[in-house]
Amino acid sequence: GFYGNLLLTQTPEHILTQTNNKTEILCELKKEHTGVYWYRWSPERQHFEFLVFSNKLGKATYGTNVSQDKFRVHEERSHSSYSLHISHLHPMDNGTYYCSVSQSSQLLLGSGTRLSVVDALPLPPKTTQTPVSKKPVPWITKSKAASRKGPCSPLVWIPLAAGVLLLLLGLVPTAHRLYRLRRRLWLRVHRQ
């Protein structure tokens, strides 16, 4: 059992943040342990790097060339939860971070937290700051129709409207038949 997900829970799964920000990864442990190790897998460098080990007394041992200003481990009172704080973030810090404990000569890893550090966060699709009138109208309508995949998408409402229309057209003869039947019955009742 390389992955000890039953013994330790790591959150969140993914962090997207900006350069120079700071972030935190939480590791909750469900069994006795001597301390927590933190590792980083870097896809660019294709290498698994030891960052820091924090024992139960809160003493930290750092890996080679690992900055103590950048990485700090905070421990909760119960010894069952540790968090790795990473500051002065840079795209070089991208990678998957794992908390880990040693259990009977095995290294049990958390599920991993993928950290993505970008210089600028992607803008939300709808911006209220730019007035719509400045942009050419055909471009807006085209892009909106193409990019909209919500409940108002033409792909949804055109077939829906066609279906409703067909349903209504199908009901016309039925409604007419019912009207004639009612009239016939009414006439028959009133004749007697």
From TrEMBL:
Keywords: Adaptive immunity, Disulfide bond, Glycoprotein, Immunity, Immunoglobulin domain, Membrane, Signal, Transmembrane, Transmembrane helix. GO terms for biological process: adaptive immune response; regulation of immune response. Residues 12-116 form the Ig-like domain. It is found in: Membrane. Its main location: membrane. Gene3D superfamilies: Immunoglobulins (2.60.40.10). It is a single-pass type I membrane protein. GO terms for molecular function: coreceptor activity; MHC class I protein binding. The keyword Glycoprotein applies. InterPro entries: CD8B (IPR042414), Ig-like_dom (IPR007110), Ig-like_dom_sf (IPR036179), Ig-like_fold (IPR013783), Ig_sub (IPR003599), Ig_V-set (IPR013106). One of its GO terms (cellular component) is membrane. It holds the Pfam family V-set. The chain crosses the membrane at residues 155-175. PANTHER family: T-CELL SURFACE GLYCOPROTEIN CD8 BETA CHAIN, T-CELL SURFACE GLYCOPROTEIN CD8 BETA CHAIN-RELATED. This is CD8B protein. The gene is Cd8b.
